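User: Please predict the structure of the protein below. I'd like the answer in C-alpha cell form so I can feed it into my own downstream comparison script.

Assistant: Understood. Taking the following sequence of 198 residues as input:
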Amino acid sequence: MEIKSAEFIISNTDVNKCPQHSMPEYAFIGRSNVGKSSLINMLTGRKGLAMTSATPGKTLLINHFLINKQWYLVDLPGYGYAQRGQSQREKLTRIINDYILERPQLTSLFVLIDSRLEPQKIDLEFIEWLGENSVPFGIIFTKADKLGRSRLMENVNKFLDTLKEQWEELPPHFITSSLNKSGRDDVLDYISSINKSL
C-alpha cells in the first residue's frame, strides 16, 4: 500500500465525539515509551504526524488521522504509565476501554510490544483482556534495530510462546523498526488486505 495522504482530523477524550463515518479504523496502542509515535510516523511516511516526545506517555487523547481518504489510523493513549496519579490512570483506562469496546468502526487494534524486553505482565494482561472481549488485534514488535537478529528472535519467540500458554491461535504479528523502516510494508499490506475484504 502506498500512503498518498495522511491528515490529522481530531483529538478528543470521548468516544462519542470521534468522527462519524463508515470507514475502517486501525488503532495503535502500547505501553509508554514503546515507540508508538515513531512507528506511526514511519508507517505514514510523515515525520511529524504523531508527536514524539522525550517524556513517555504524552499521548493522552484519541487522535484520528485520515489515510488516503479511505481509512483512519487512530493513535490511542498508552497504558501502564506508573508516574501518573491514580485518578489520571483511571481516566486514561476509561478513555482506552470506551474506544476499544464501543467504537463500531474499530476494525483491528495493533498492540505494540518493545522487542528488547522480556514478556511484561502488563502487556500480557492487556492482550488477555482483548481476548476476553473478542477484540480483533495484531501485535507489532518495535525497536527491532536495537538488538542483534538472534536475540531479537529469541525475545519475539519467548513472547509468542508465553501467549501460547493461553491462546490456541496466535494473532498476526509483525517485527518493525522505525529507524530502518523494516516491517512497514508488512503492516500496511495487512491493513490493505483487510480493507479489500470489507
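That's the full C-alpha cell string. The first strand starts at residue 6 and ends at 12.
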